[in-house]
Sequence to fold (453 residues):
Amino acid sequence: MTACDKAVVVGAGIAGLLAARVLADAFTEVEVLEQDTLPDGPAQRPGVPQGHHVHGLTARGAEVMESLFPGLRAELTAAGAPGGDFGQIVAFRFPGCWSPRARTGIPLQTFSRPLLEARLRKRVTALGNVRIRQGVRVTGLTGSTLRATGVRTLGTPLPDKAVAADLVVVANGRTSHLPEWLTELGLPQPQRTVIDARVGYASRLYTAAGADGPPWAAAMELLQAPHVRRGFMATRIEGDRLLVTLQGAAGDHPPHEPDGFTAFAHSLRTPLAELLTRLSPLTSVRPYRHCANQRTHYHRLPHWPDGLLALGDAVCAFNPLYGQGMGIAAMEADLLRTMLTRPAGPGFAHAYQRRLARLTRRPWLMSTVQDRGWQQPRPDRTARLTAAVLPPVQRAMAAEPEVFRRFLEAMHMTRGSTVLLHPRALVPVLAAAVRPARSTPDHPHLWWGHTPS
Fold:
């Protein structure tokens, strides 16, 4: 694509920063408009309330980010972010067993959301043709049903002003007002699908230096409909700290006060509570409950304005439990990079929304198939089938590292879902399904270094 004059990105979160990086190669000027006042370094900000909680980045997402920002992985390592082979540093607690501890070839790095965002923001700001404007609220689009020509703004330094652009990219998260902006232009209201498992979080940060810290980089106890309502995710992050996020589905949310937080941890099936007694808390307990899967079907609109793109959580927001959001945002930016290598004539924007819908379809199904099991009054047929299939799959993963490796490849989107249909995965799963389910011994010492007292 030949260089155009100006692109405007709405939102300076992960998706917006990745989009700005891609657009910098195709546009003379890129302007990122952000409502928040942005911190100078890794710090929480109001526009990212989920920033206090555990975040994960898929291997495919990390690959794309590294290609856009060469050396990013090394920067995170230098900042203190742990890393290693997923199968050797991440402890999965399935409802009936633990994941195997084996090399998988899937790399993982654990860090806080503010650290990653700060590093991306610094890299984007260093680009000569990108400018980030803070304290600017976008209130709508300019243009018509045929073409978006810019955005309307409020706040300093752009009070009550229309900002013209050849391309507008909306990347302002799951609370985006893009549907209303489109109706103001004269387009119909887009359809939206919401799958809500009524998941709630509570997170707290602890010291994790020295021998008292855990022997893993990340651990999780998975929720599973219809019976396993409580779980957690914990990651070692920069600064020798442990970020712990307790989770509860179907309205069974962890409490927001310290004693209740500790009691909830004691109700889990892992030694997490015992670990926390050895660590010192660094923060108060932070709640978060906006975890519904939400997909806005912009691609189904009969017409889409040229000069307008939407991506990230503004289009498809996942239950954070599954750790897909940042990785999918990277893949959406990569899709845009690929499409911008060709002439972007009329219909380019609509074509991008349709291709984005195809890109998000598989992760959407992976995220919602479990969450449908919590729906009231009764889960649908797909959710009931999933509840029946998962136990033998998990038993096969625990017994056969090859099955677990293939599951991770599908989860991290380094290979297609058909990787699970290979005989080396399918045969152990079928064998586990036909064998009577046994009571699997619980061996937390495999991952925790000891058996809890």
